[in-house]
Known about the structure:
- The protein is elongated and about 60 Å long.
- It starts with 8 loop residues before the first helix and ends in an 11-residue tail after the last helix.
- By secondary structure, the protein is mainly alpha-helical.
Amino acid sequence: MKHYAERDHMAQDAAGNYYSRHVSAMTAEGLHAKSDIAGELAHRDIQIDRLRRSRDFYMKRCEALQAVQNKMRDPERKAVCDILANGSTSALEGANT
Length: 97
């Protein structure tokens, strides 16, 4: 089984100049050996794995909040709904006055 698929470099560039940007950076930084490039790919894999774990961490919390929000009373329920949908809320402004 192949680990690396054939990629459409034109499509990668059309999606955000990904391919050409990397070719230029690797050339400028002297990354010509497979071991140097593999080291950079490994570093990126580590970063991607950390980001996935962080995403999963917050997704589970969002799902838990969604599961219990119907049991909450306003204004807390509205605040949770606002934050989940929009990333912020004004539902609690003036609640402590």
